[in-house]
Design a protein that fits this description.
Beta-Lactamase; five-stranded antiparallel beta sheet
């Protein structure tokens, strides 16, 4: 005979996962019986319906996804095209300093683009440049001279003479032998064209995943331009000739149904330039043939449209299951609520405490993570999180915070300082002639030197909210919230002396007989428009001055 007290006691025994699993199994069994009964009733009660709305949703989803891909690339490329540094270089192409500033902007942009490269044409000289991810400013040199007589250079001359800011086209990348979507953006100053910046997305990749759901006899998806050229056809997704060559079949060559052709022509009559986003799908019932519906949706920011052909059966299944899924969802939500109530004391309350401790940890709090002393799964999780936090946010050689931690922490710190009208001081430090030190004493001694300098910097920053970051290589950053100019100067002077007091011999140091550092310092009042990169840039400028004027010193540049 079942003992009720014994059964209750069973649910109180075991580790956290075991206890929660036993309760969940019981609740899920009850919920499953109810859900099964409801689903059986639903399957018998729901009539099979075909809705035109569902056909429109298929097409609209496709167009929105493609438009989002293109809009993202446009938003990124616009930053480069409108950058003051890039415009300044275009106006004075052979000025090395301006080219260097432009490279900083362009290399940042390239890392965000799908293709990781840019083509740039300059209107004045007709020089063509190529910028790739991972390159240096020295790599920016002309790779070709643009020629209006060469069809391959039409991208430049068509864009320069266009009244639009950008042009979008689909052509074969003859280097990669693949079809690409090309985005050509005009760079202008006072309405005078200075050049064109170009990037490309691999077309089959952009639409491949999207159109894979149409690889059936029930549905077919196409992309056409204003002239009816078919750029993508789901039935040809595996056709290498179609994907990798100048394959230009028209819609009328694929379909002869006059209703379909008239609908396409009517659709394009409404076109005036590139389509605007947010246009509604147009659905046409087809009187005969394999498909019953044709839905056309413009792709925003382009001259293309998505055309979806579908049979009623391809829409019916989805509609059949939709009410069932809604019903199941409601029941599962009810199950989740009941499960969370019973599992709160066992699982969620300890997890809440763990979460609170993680918030403190992320806010640079010295408190440890909750649950580290437990011997159950939560304890293992707490210790694992602590270990992962250390690996993700601490430099393994010096034990200092790394740039990732700085980036994740500074948004909160800057927000607090801007609300309290607080000051922020930032120091950039670089060990003088550290490469020479490594070459002279070896990398093992170089690591020891880095550790000693890091330890000194860390112990010089005494306040809890001060952050010491290994910024990279032999470069360090110190963040001093609520520190005015006098405090920043005092800290820099103290740091110079503390590192000199280490008396680490460095015979190849032109600035001192011992290991020394050069420091750049800046201080400013934080407001909502500031971010940490502005302070880092200003401190880096000051560091550059220190290096150029003798090293083993600090230079202060006011942030404002």
């Amino acid at each position: 005979m079942y003992n009720l007290a014994g059964g209750i006691h069973l649910f109180r025994k075991g580790k956290l996962a075991v206890r929660f699993r036993r309760i969940s199994i019981l609740l899920f069994t009850v919920a499953f019986i109810i859900i099964a009964a409801v689903m059986i009733y639903a399957f018998n009660a729901i009539a099979v319906q075909i809705t035109e709305d569902y056909a429109e949703r298929y097409a609209a989803t496709s167009a929105e996804a493609l438009s989002a891909h293109i809009a993202r690339e446009i938003s990124v490329i616009t930053i480069a095209a409108q950058s003051e540094d890039v415009i300044a270089w275009m106006k004075d192409e052979f000025n090395e300093e301006k080219k260097s500033h432009a490279f900083i902007v362009l290399s940042s942009i390239v890392s965000q683009l799908y293709s990781y490269n840019l083509y740039i044409g300059v209107a004045d000289s007709l020089n063509e440049y190529r910028v790739e991810a991972g390159g240096t400013v020295n790599d920016i040199s002309p790779v070709a001279v643009l020629n209006a007589e060469e069809p391959a250079d039409d991208w430049f001359f068509d864009t320069i003479h266009s009244e639009m800011d950008f042009l979008i086209s689909v052509n074969i990348d003859h280097i990669m032998q693949r079809k690409r979507v090309w985005l050509d953006y005009k760079i202008s100053y006072n309405s005078i064209p200075l050049g064109v910046i170009c990037t490309g997305l691999e077309f089959s990749h952009v639409v491949g995943e999207l159109f894979s759901k149409y690889e059936s006899s029930d549905m077919r998806g196409l992309i056409i331009d204003k002239n009816g050229i078919v750029y993508m056809d789901s039935s040809l997704m595996k056709d290498n000739e179609f994907l990798h060559s100048e394959y230009t079949i028209t819609f009328e060559e694929v379909f002869s149904d006059p209703v379909m052709i008239d609908a396409i022509k009517t659709h394009h009559e409404e076109m005036d330039g590139y389509w605007r986003s947010g246009r509604d799908p147009v659905l046409t019932r087809l009187p005969s043939g394999q498909f019953q519906f044709m839905t056309i949706v413009p792709i925003g920011l382009t001259e293309w449209s998505v055309v979806i052909l579908s049979q009623s059966s391809s829409l019916r299944d989805t509609m059949f299951f939709l009410p069932v899924m809604i019903t199941v969802l409601i029941l599962l939500i009810a199950f989740a609520i009941l499960s969370s109530i019973t599992g709160y004391r066992i699982l969620f309350k300890p997890l809440q405490k763990l979460d609170d401790s993680l918030i403190h940890l992320n806010e640079h709090s010295p408190e440890g993570i909750y649950g580290a002393e437990r011997d159950d799964e939560l304890g293992h999780l707490s210790n694992t999180i602590q270990d992962l936090f250390n690996k993700a946010n601490l430099d393994p050689l010096t034990g200092l915070y790394n740039r990732r931690f700085m980036d994740s922490s500074m948004e909160r710190i800057m927000g607090l300082l801007s609300r309290s009208d607080g000051s922020l001081s930032v120091l950039m430090l670089d060990i003088d002639f550290f490469k020479r030190y490594n070459d002279t004493y070896g990398h093992d001694e170089g690591d020891k030197c880095l550790q000693a300098v890091a330890h000194t910097i860390s112990h010089s920053a005494l306040r809890v909210n001060d952050l010491v970051i290994r910024y990279g290589g032999e470069e360090f950053t110190v963040i001093l919230p609520n520190t005015e100019i006098e405090g920043a100067r005092y800290f820099a002077e103290k740091l110079l002396q503390n590192i000199q007091d280490l008396k680490i011999s460095h015979e190849k140091n032109d600035a001192s007989e011992f290991v020394s550092v050069s420091i750049g310092v800046t201080t400013g009042k934080v407001n909502v428009h500031h971010d940490i990169s502005m302070y880092l840039k200003k401190a880096d400028e000051a560091l550059y001055v220190s290096k150029e004027t003798g090293r083993n010193k600090y230079t202060y540049i006011d942030f404002e």
